Amino acid sequence: MTEAAQNLPLLLAGAKRWFDDALTASMRAAGEQPLSSAQGQVFAVLDPDGTTVSELARRLGVTRQTAHQAVHGLLALDLLEQIPDPASARSRLIRITPEGARVHRRAQATLTVIEEALADRIGTDAAAALRTALTLPRGEPPVVEAP
After folding, report:
1. Which residues form the HTH marR-type domain (predicted)?
2. Which of 57, 90, 94, 104 is the most exposed place for a label (fewest CB within 10 A)?
3. pLDDT level of residue 33 (50, 70, 90 thresholds)
């Protein structure tokens, strides 16, 4: 029996999992507290002056509760802090702490090395083509009818 080819979303999810696993293992080996994938993604969408949890949720494409859980864990690790939002007395901004910035820089440097390891395995041309393909504009998601 022939196994059906995996669809692109499954392949992309598998590739992301490979990067997440490599980053987690590498950070743990370096003596850093491992973060969940969701916690790591928070750093990628934070504004330098701070971002509300609601805005983080929107940028991450998750519920406010999910974003709050990720942020709460990072607050407990002293990687993020809450400050009053000068634009709204009811809101608080989440921003990175100096320790969070240090960990984020280390994670970014580690990801660079992991990308180099991938390029060694699949070839530099394939890695460059993959990066190019994933950064091309895709436009709005299409609404299609199945045949």
Report:
1. 28-127
2. 90
3. confident
What is 53-103 written as a DSSP string?
HHHHHHHHTS-HHHHHHHHHHHHHTTSEEEEEETTEEEEEEEEE-HHHHHH
Q: pTM for this structure? A: 0.84
Distance CA 66, CA 73 (A): 11
Domains and CATH numbers, the chain: 37-129 (1.10.10.10)
Backbone angles phi, psi at 66, to 5 degrees: -65, -45
Model pLDDT, residue 122: 97
- Distance between CA atoms of 130 and 35, rounded to whole angstroms? 26
72 Cβ contact partners less than 8 Å away, ≥ 6 residues apart: none
Six-digit token pair at 74? 């990072």
